[in-house]
């Protein structure tokens, strides 16, 4: 549909330049921790208010596509994810950077972000309607179980013990409960502290748990200054990078489907894809979590495929898939457009502009990722005793910028100290991060599900009797059972026997 | 030969399990007390989810205890890398001081002072380097975020 219409935008110099401007802004904003794509898109809405709809959409799409990708840059280079969806990228990206292979990691990330973004947009173009119909079938209990499944899967990703991973997730869920209750509006777990009434923002938590905690971890080493960072000038063959292409399509499918679920978004998609990668990749280049390229492929393919996925319910049902698409929706309303089931039929030119803007954004992602990103990677060569204080200042600004609240800086320091001790005693901070992101959604959906089921005759059937719910429940239970130490050991023994 | 006495208290997992058990128990008690004070149905209670989480946390603290005890029984000893505690606490101290002083002195002055202190703490001793780095970093950050991007600074 409208292939010619889409390509006609490629020849429109003004349109291409605006996408490029958005892409540059996306690269810059996305790679700085604390400056989120959501914030940048919100700023763009006010700037593009008087522009034509096509111009506004071109800039927004460029920013969105490249902004999601560039969160991986700081994740790889300084272990601070630019956005929650880049958390998983730190697992293998930062170890690679420590080994001096940041350049190679950035090439992988660029190419698979490109593949993920293109895949998501193609799905939006071809299968927008059917996918949104599947997403509509999800009920509150399904959202709750999907998030729970994500958390249990994360438990299995942690390097030292399943129970430690789950404990980290439970603590994250408890932290996400702090603040005004979303249903009744009463303060919960604030212990009389007024600043806690607005809850724990994800950005200070993220910056603290990853950024400041990493600073403390590095300075805690007695021989901190003896460690010299290196940047190997390794040549990577495109053939080597593309050998994961088959698997990446699977991760892209996960990303698109999760992206189409309102509220789930990039973090869940990348976590799920990473846990799937651990399951299906039998012989990774090095073990997962120690710099496996397969981990980068999973994370980046999935979180970038979410872009197209998140736009599906936004365009076809007027339900935004994530925070950025919620703001893009406001661009539509500002310019008098009405997304919904008839949008693609009634406004084909605008739909084509979105797709064209997305594809152009993907091309700029590839160019900027391959040309500019290697230059940024030189940042790791800066001596640690100079780099770490500067990273600390960036952490402070990142934490403050999200809400303009000095208390968030304090929270960031607290999370940094907690993250440092968690790392020291082998508790992964990733499950806690995901739990803080998903906690509010899990709480409201769980209560909604219980409330709805309590009005039915058969409570249990109403709660967990639907096919999607049953599948998600089984997946969660199987993940839990498979990770119980006794079961895990017997499975390993069986595997070894078969090998012999 | 006299068998060496096993000491479970030195195991980090055992210590951790006690900590998480206490947190779980505290949240459970807090949630139950607050729920019954509100006196509404459980299905709409803001404390339904925290209650569930605290029960799971208590259960997990037992599994962690079990893992820790088993590790001691097997004679596993985890070697922990040495930690430069003095540097860590001083770094945290300086950043906390920065947090408390900033509202009074403003971003630029506090930031320059903090950077000087941190550079010195991390072993940088060349004065002109320290001065140039701390002043230029602050000015670049101020210009980039505040002037160019209109980002509010603390």
List descriptors:
heterodimer, A: 500 residues, mainly alpha, two-stranded antiparallel sheet, 23 helices, 2 strands, globular, B: 154 residues, 5 helices, 72% helix
| Weakly predicted, low-confidence segments of chain B | none
How far is the first residue's CA from the last residue's CA of chain B?
66 Å
Mean pLDDT of chain A: 83
The number of helices of chain A is 23
Largest sheet features of chain A? 2 strands, antiparallel
Please give a structural write-up.
The complex is a heterodimer of chains A (500) and B (154). Chain A is mainly alpha-helical. Chain A has 23 helices and 2 strands. Chain A has helices spanning 3-10, 13-31, 37-47, 53-78, 87-98, 102-136, 140-157, 162-176, 202-219, 238-241, 245-260, 265-280, 293-317, 323-334, 343-346, 348-371, 373-376, 384-403, 406-424, 430-453, 459-464, 467-482, 485-499, and strands at 179-180, 187-188. In chain A, helix 4 (53-78) packs across helix 6 (102-136). Chain B has 154 residues and is mainly α. The model of chain B has no long low-confidence stretch (mean pLDDT 87).
Compact summary:
Chain A is built from 23 helices and 2 strands. By secondary structure, chain A is mostly helical.
Task: Itemize the secondary structure elements and their pairings.
The complex is a heterodimer of chains A (500) and B (154).
Chain A: H1 3-10, H2 13-31, H3 37-47, H4 53-78, H5 87-98, H6 102-136, H7 140-157, H8 162-176, E1 179-180, E2 187-188, H9 202-219, H10 238-241, H11 245-260, H12 265-280, H13 293-317, H14 323-334, H15 343-346, H16 348-371, H17 373-376, H18 384-403, H19 406-424, H20 430-453, H21 459-464, H22 467-482, H23 485-499
Antiparallel strand pairs in A: 1-2
Chain B: H1 12-38, H2 48-73, H3 85-105, H4 107-121, H5 127-148
Helix pairs in contact in B: 1-2, 3-4, 4-5
